[in-house]
Amino acid sequence: MKTDAERHNSKISNANLEMKIRNLGNFVIDVLNTNESPYFDIPIRTLSNVEFDKENLKIVMKDKKSRRNFLNIAHTRKFTQTLSAAAVIYKELLQTEKTTSLRDLFYMLKRTIPDTKINLVDEQIESDNAVEDLELLLDDLRENLHVNAKKKGSVAGNVVIKDGDDIIAWNKMGSGGWAVPSNVENIEFKGVDAKFVLFMEKDAVWNRLNEDKFWKKNNCIIIESGGQTTRGVRRILQRLNKEFSLPIYVLVDFDPWGIYIYSVIKYGSIGLSHLSDMLSTPKCKFLGLNGNDIEKYGLKKHLIKLKDVDIQRLEEMKNYVWFKDKNDWKEQFDIMKKFNAKAEIEALSARGISFITEKYLPEKIANKEFLD
Amino acid sequence: MKTDAERHNSKISNANLEMKIRNLGNFVIDVLNTNESPYFDIPIRTLSNVEFDKENLKIVMKDKKSRRNFLNIAHTRKFTQTLSAAAVIYKELLQTEKTTSLRDLFYMLKRTIPDTKINLVDEQIESDNAVEDLELLLDDLRENLHVNAKKKGSVAGNVVIKDGDDIIAWNKMGSGGWAVPSNVENIEFKGVDAKFVLFMEKDAVWNRLNEDKFWKKNNCIIIESGGQTTRGVRRILQRLNKEFSLPIYVLVDFDPWGIYIYSVIKYGSIGLSHLSDMLSTPKCKFLGLNGNDIEKYGLKKHLIKLKDVDIQRLEEMKNYVWFKDKNDWKEQFDIMKKFNAKAEIEALSARGISFITEKYLPEKIANKEFLD
Fold first, then answer.
1. How close, in Å, is residue B192 to chain A by CA atoms?
2. Domain span(s) for CATH 3.40.1360.10 in chain A
3. If you ran DSSP here, which 8-state letter would residue A281 be given?
4. pLDDT tens digits for range B38-87
5. Which of residues 284-313 of A touch B (CB under 8 A)?
6. Rounded to an integer, what distance in angstroms lies between the CA atom of residue A268 and that of residue A93?
């Protein structure tokens, strides 16, 4: 695993990765020269190969691998797809210093193998899997392979960054904020004057905080991702926490989905367990809404009854190994069950439009009322 | 309908609106003083009251109204909700100069009527309808009532704006761009140096164009909305077209959904027909993808078979009055039907990662290959 200093230096990172890809290719050639079948040993991406690392507080991948053998006809197609994806990424992305999306990469790989009627890939899931294979083989983020995820979310605060040739001040972004790009690996933080970072799932809440200049009055950074966090937002949170020791507070709905957003930011996700090192922020804290807020802030009449799908998700959440041994979280899940209801952040508006910025958030933060 | 100059002057706009809301309240009091039942006459929001204005090229609302009478028990609830929404908007939004979301407004209105067990609103659809009633009664955008829609999308180009106290240069936004806020009514354009605006539905395409500095090389503005256009993006497009006579080109997938995005930007939508004046841009042009691009740019092997739901939507689109008399569009729908397939913008990446910025777009724009 590379150090952060390395990861953030695009040129070193590129050179390293390019060397790793060349090594992958050379390995295939070397094996071919011995008249053997070339192969890759790829970590297995199933639940059975995932565990929770209690010491480092993150979901990690165990070390079971499966061999993908070119001359095993059950493997030939996948082997060829992964190797071709490596070639396209090397030549058309890294060498040209361009980035692209998974959908575009699918089209870049979708070609007919000469003298056959066989397409290298027919469905995007095949090229997606090839990229995931490469993340595992090369032990790096797909963003560093120049394959970007969905872009969403915006940010404001007393921060100055350098992105390409542009110097961008997050405190001069008006009502919109700076749009967080999908790839934040090469962003340089030039100045960070903030005491903490407040992440919120909802853009409407961000708007309220931005309009009330919450980030200015409380010297913090506010960032939203319009729902589930994107990889870009997760990377920014991790970088601000690691590089500047900023506390990260998470503000989501009091429902299983909101708590899961927190869980993913903090511990990583099962699907991306091999990337927890780069995407998770174990030190982040859950600010709210929590079950105790409901009585305390008079939100009881704004509870929303749980649906079957919420209850099912709640049961799953309760049993996650990183929640089930924690009494604080057991209490939260019990409250949700007792009320048989969830509550939304926007419910605070029933107490007044700026109740959230003038009362709720300052009080919670001053009293350090966080769940961990 | 207010003039643009008025609409963009927040203070005049606020004062006008506040006066209109006071007039609404005074009218109710005047009627009450005659011992009659107060009422509102509200334009009917059904398809039967919508038509296409061929001269001005937009979907408009006809003038059928229905009377909502307080003492008609079938109307009492809705009348009260609309009046209460007006009061909350007046006192808690306009007078405090704050904005909010529909979801927050729901909670602000969700209270029990004193001495009863009846909630003023039980479901968000009721407060949403009250806001829509007010848009119609006051003849203004809900953004000017300080009720914001979803925020999404980003923009880059040689443009300087003033938003609140911040001066924001859209050409210094790095890889992210400026996040387009939900409410762009009070943004002042301080400098616009661009020959046209290119709107695209997909953030991945925007990333490619931004990375290739397409907006710099072609002196244009690039803007995306990550799918269906938001009201904020539609207002920005209209303002750039009206205030700076900039041509607007729309870049979407060649499928019924992409063409509908174009249709909404150009003519407005049936659901918001009363706002077409403020949200539509009749002069915008469809740049692509179009059916002829498929052969011309070698995308035939990247066609995707239409699903039943696509075919159904295609049939609906063909019959829209603003498409069905146009031979160019008839041809497009016929091509889609003949191929029984759609094509995505990303398919251009099969021709090379920067094919879109170096060949496709410059060629289409130079040859003015637009559909109208």
1. 18
2. 154-366
3. -
4. 999 999 988 899 999 999 999 999 999 999 999 999 999 999 999 999 99
5. 301-302
6. 27
